[in-house]
Amino acid sequence: MHDPLAALLGASDDGLLEYSYLDAVRLAGHSCPTVAGAFLVARAATMALFPDGPAMRGEIEVRMPAPEEEGTNGVIAQVLTLITGAATANGFHGIGGRFVRQHLLRFSDVSHAGAIGFRRRDNAAAVSVELDLRSIPAPPNLRELLATAVDPAASTAQRAEFARVWQERVRTLLLEHADDPEVLRVTRIQCN
Q: Domain of life of the organism in this record (predicted)?
């Protein structure tokens, strides 16, 4: 990502910032299909909006399709904020009318279909990205492994087995489906 604010404030001489999945994990405090999916949604959207090279952090508006408190929307939005810079009312208010991040991330008041909208502020190019994990189902024994792992009497081996199975699905999503159009549906939106 290129972030002009990072360049201005000296966080990066050239304004280039690289975000990895590990950054999203650090932000969320855990690794799961939701965090991985949000990371891939941000990746797909920025690549579609900026096909010729680095996306401009702070220059993307994000529209979540449902209320903030619904399901995992809050976690997803935090990862999208990390990468795009788009924030709600609590975002950076800017310097001299530039670099404003406030109100670039908005939630719908009612639930809609699962696509998240992204729009460039400079040229209004827009895409929606929908994550569909149906082709990467959770292992059938995941609930049982989880129930065992959270039991205070669980052994180290039982907890490790749950973690292994859990992270295998995350690994599969990130490494085998990052560019899979059946998992990440990117649709260009015509803006008037």
A: Bacteria
d(CA 163, CA 139): 12
Return the beta strands (E) in the chain as ranges: 60-64, 105-107, 116-120, 126-131, 184-189
pTM confidence score: 0.93
Edge-to-edge strands, sheet with 105-107:
105-107, 60-64, 116-120, 126-131, 184-189
Q: Rounded to an integer, what distance in angstroms lies between the CA atom of residue 101 and that of residue 93? A: 6
Exposed/middle/buried for 12, CB within 10 Å: 0-12, 13-18, 19+? Answer: middle
Residues 103-135: tens digit of each pLDDT: 999 999 877 767 999 999 999 999 999 999 999
Chain centre distance of CA 129: 11
Could you tell me the domains of the chain? 4-136+177-189 (3.30.1330.20)
> What tens digit of pLDDT does each residue of 25-47 get?
999 999 999 999 999 999 999 99
CB 100 within 8 A of CB 121: no
pLDDT of residue 192: 57
